């Protein structure tokens, strides 16, 4: 009979997420995870199987947290334009609030791991798709209420907005100010 878990799963999930988000997949060792969580190596392996399993768990946990944080934007404000503008600015504001200006963990995974680990790549694609779906629903709302006048298919516009936002998040890691980033967001909004 397996022994029951004797740790706070939510707390450990947050700690594993933060360790990978701060130090990357390759920069985090199993020992780092044990030290950060206070779990023994055997408890860590029982919980996640291996380091890749812990990273998959962190990506999944991150996706759920971000989805819960971002989903209210689907109904935010009085127009789709207002909702999309707020979402884009708030993503950048959230990044600037971090001392290290950390960007999206999913972007980290795309750049660092890519397709080297198929299951992580699939989870990354799923996370990206959820955010793109949210952007698409906001674009559809904006087209329906007339606040977004570009008649291109909403999915194509959502992909454009998502790609620009991803690039801006990477750029914002080293930018001296957020002036150019915010100006770019405003330019994107004029295209819609």
UniProtKB/TrEMBL annotation:
Domain of life: Bacteria
Entry's Gene Ontology molecular function annotations: DNA binding
HTH tetR-type domain residues: 19-52
Keyword Transcription listed: yes
UniProt xrefs under Pfam families: TetR_C_13, TetR_N
Record domain Tetracyclin repressor-like C-terminal: where: 82-186
InterPro entries documented for this protein: Homeodomain-like_sf, HTH_TetR, Tet_transcr_reg_TetR-rel_C_sf, TetR_C
Keywords: DNA-binding, Transcription, Transcription regulation
Alphabetized SUPFAM superfamilies for the sequence: Homeodomain-like, Tetracyclin repressor-like, C-terminal domain
Residues annotated as signal peptide: none
The name this protein goes by in its record: TetR family transcriptional regulator
Protein source organism: Psychromicrobium lacuslunae
């Amino acid at each position: 009979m397996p022994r029951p878990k004797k740790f706070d799963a939510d707390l450990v999930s947050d700690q594993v997420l933060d360790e990978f988000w701060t130090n990357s997949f390759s920069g985090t060792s199993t020992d780092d995870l044990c030290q950060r969580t206070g779990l023994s190596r055997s408890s860590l392996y029982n919980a996640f199987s291996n380091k890749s399993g812990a990273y998959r768990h962190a990506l999944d946990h991150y996706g759920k947290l971000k989805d819960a944080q971002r989903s209210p934007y689907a109904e935010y404000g009085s127009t789709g334009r207002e909702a999309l503008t707020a979402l884009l600015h708030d993503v950048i504001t959230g990044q600037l609030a971090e001392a290290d200006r950390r960007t999206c963990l999913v972007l980290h995974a795309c750049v660092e791991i890519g397709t080297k680990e198929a299951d992580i790549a699939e989870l990354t694609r799923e996370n990206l798709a959820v955010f793109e779906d949210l952007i698409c629903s906001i674009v559809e709302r904006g087209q329906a209420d007339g606040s977004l006048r570009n008649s291109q298919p909403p999915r194509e516009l959502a992909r454009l907005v998502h790609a620009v936002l991803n690039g801006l998040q990477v750029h914002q890691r080293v930018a001296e100010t957020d002036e150019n980033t915010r100006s770019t967001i405003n330019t994107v909004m004029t295209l819609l």
